[in-house]
Amino acid sequence: MNCFEAIRTFPGDVGLYYRVLGEEGVVTHNPDLPLIAASVIKLPIMVTAFRDIAAGKLDPAEAIAIKPEDKMPSCGALTYMHDGLEVTLMDLITLMIILSDNTATNVLIDKLTPDHVNRTMAALDIPGIALRRRLFEPELSRKGIQNTVTAKGAGMLLERMAMGKLLGKDTDEQMIGILLNQRLNGKLPFFLHSRGIRCAHKTGEDDNITHDAGIIYSARPFVLCMLSNNVDVPAFERLIQDTARDLALGGGAS
To answer: CA-CA distance, 214 to 244, in Å (whole number)?
Structure first.
């Protein structure tokens, strides 16, 4: 069984998008299936912020004080810093991506608004991504109001970014530079960093949910998005690791 067959037969709700950059062929599985996004929703938030910065609507050096009520649980650093800490807008974007900082994410959502992020995705012709609420809003979650993403949407966003065709070459390279500094590297890059293969990516996880979506700079660079809901998380994460390794080393697509 090759890696694509393993993905297609994996129990649960699974989405796949794979394309070698600059080539026509694309391999997908459930590419348009809306999945609870978890922290992959931070990709369109970053893109929206950078688009506004490029348009002069946001100042990347703006100082923002982190208030006690801003602090969110789990991932990141800002929750554990002193009240009133001042960080820049660009600091928030960077922490949101490389540490998946949830406090930084909600501050950015408040600043940008979900409607603006969704309109930006529509303006960029990126399908299947919907930011509906801030993180950690359990009442809305219980009502089924979730942030969602599709493998096709995440894949197209990263593919165009990698080709310098999302926001423009310079801005796309800035975003890739942040993604390359990702500190949460237990999925797509697990077998790659020791081989000197760079990976610009964003993870996401929650109960029975695990995702990774990235650009892998192997000899033939490619975009790989593997998203899942309602799965055995350790087993799917091992499949993510193995798939990225096999495709990067040329052994998984036969």
So the answer is: 10
Phi, psi at residue 36, to the nearest 5°?
A: -55, 125
- State percent of the chain over pLDDT 70: 98
Residue 89 CB coordination number (10 Å)? 21
DSSP 220: S
Residues of the chain below pLDDT 70: 1, 251-254
Q: Name the β-bridge partners of 228.
A: 14
pTM greater than 0.85: yes
Cα 220 to Cα 28, 95, 136, 196, distances in angstroms:
18, 29, 39, 14
d(CA 210, CA 231): 8
With beta carbons less than 8 A apart as the criterion, state whether 167 and 51 touch: yes
Strand partners, 26: 19
C-alpha dihedral, 73 to 116 to 97 to 63, nearest 10°: -80
Inter-residue contact 104 to 178 (CB < 8 Å): no
